[in-house]
Amino acid sequence: MNDPAQIKAVIFDMDGVLTDSEPLINAAAIQMFREEGLEVRPEDFIPFVGAGENRYIGGVAEKYGFPLEIAAAKKRTYEIYLQLVPDRLNAFPGARELVRRCRGANLKTALASSADAVKIQANLRKIGLVPEGWDAIVTGEDVVHPKPQPEIFLSAARKLGMEPQSCCVVEDALNGIAAARAAGMRCVAVAQTFPAGRLAQADLVRSSVADVSINDLTGK
C-alpha cells in the first residue's frame, strides 16, 4: 500500500495499544449499566471496541433495546473509569519504548484515540507519555465520523502536516484497522485485544507492541 521510503509519521491508537485500558472501560461500563438497572456481559461490547465510548455504550444499549441518555451514561462511565486508573492502569510492556524509538528515528508521533479528552489525558499521564510530548493528538470529540471511518486518522495526518501515505497506524481493533485502510495508511496491528487471526486486514500483525520494530512501521 505504501512506499516504505515515504513513512515519516506513526499514528498510535491508545486503548489496547499503549495501555491495558480495555478491561477497565469494560468494567466501568458494566457498572454504569448495572446502576441504570440493566445487567450486561463483558462480551456484549466486543463489536464496538475502538469505535469510541458513544458507540461502545450506545451499541450495547441498542442490543438490549434499553433506553439510555448517552451523554449522561458516558459521563458516569468515565467517572467510574477514572477511579480505576490510579491503581489498575498500566502501559503495555514496550509501549513507551516504541514511542520513544519512533521519536529517536525522526518519525513524527501522533495519538488518534476514539476516547474523549478526559480519558486520554488521564491515561497518558499515568503511563508517562504526557500529552505535551506528542506532535498531534486527535480525540473522539474532534471527529464527526468515528472508526471504522477514516476521519480520525486523516485528521491526525493533517495536524502532522503529512500525506496519508506517509503515515503508519498502530492499532489493536478491527474498527481501527478498517479506518487505517480507508485512510490509505500502512497499518501494523498488535494482538493484545483480539487474536492475531482476526487482524489479517492489517499490513502486518505482531503479538504485542513490544514486538514492533521501526522497520515494521516503515515497511523497510
Q: The biggest beta sheet, please?
A: 6 strands, parallel
Find the count of extended strands (DSSP E, 2+ residues). 6
Number of domains: 2
CATH topology of the largest domain: Rossmann fold
CATH level 1 name of the largest domain? Alpha Beta
CATH superfamily of the largest domain: HAD superfamily/HAD-like
CATH architecture of the largest domain: 3-Layer(aba) Sandwich
CA radius of gyration: 17 Å
The total of helices stands at 8
**What's the order of the H and E elements?**
EHHHHEHEHEHEEH
Please indicate the percent range of residues in DSSP E strands (runs of 2 or more). 5-15%
The secondary structure category is alpha/beta
Characterization of this structure:
The chain is α/β, with parallel strands linked by helices. It folds into two domains: 4-20 and 90-218, 3-Layer(aba) Sandwich (Rossmann fold), CATH 3.40.50.1000; 22-88, DNA polymerase, domain 1, CATH 1.10.150. It has eight helices and six strands; from the N terminus they run E-H-H-H-H-E-H-E-H-E-H-E-E-H. A six-stranded parallel β-sheet has the order 3-2-1-4-5-6. Helix 5 links the parallel strand 2 (108-112) and strand 3 (136-138). Helix 1 (22-36) crosses helix 3 (70-88), helix 2 (53-63) crosses helix 3 (70-88) and helix 3 packs parallel to helix 5 (117-127). The radius of gyration is 17 Å and the shape is globular. The chain starts with 8 loop residues before the first strand and ends with a helix. The mean pLDDT is 94.
